[in-house]
């Protein structure tokens, strides 16, 4: 999965971009105050990285349940 698709998934779920430091995009969720970081731009993120970001964002279970 590329970073653009992962970022789009986060934004669609209500995450907001709060800051950019170099290639690291930091997102915060408005209701939970959780934070995740995604490296952008990157064409192919490692599967472990994608799973870790989705798990931290609470999206991993939703992907497998739908």
TrEMBL record:
Single GO molecular function: hydrolase activity
Transmembrane among keywords: no
Keyword Magnesium: no
Keyword terms of this UniProt record: Endonuclease, Hydrolase, Nuclease, RNA-binding, Stress response, Toxin-antitoxin system
Family: Belongs to the HicA mRNA interferase family.
Protein name: YcfA-like protein
Species classification: Bacteria, Pseudomonadati, Pseudomonadota, Betaproteobacteria, Burkholderiales
């Amino acid at each position: 999965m590329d970073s653009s698709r992962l970022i789009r998934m986060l934004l669609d779920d209500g995450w907001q971009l709060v800051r950019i430091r170099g290639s690291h995009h930091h997102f915060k969720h408005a209701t939970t105050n959780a934070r995740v970081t995604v490296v952008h731009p990157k064409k192919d993120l490692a599967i472990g990285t994608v799973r870790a970001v989705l798990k931290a964002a609470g999206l991993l279970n939703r992907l497998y349940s739908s």
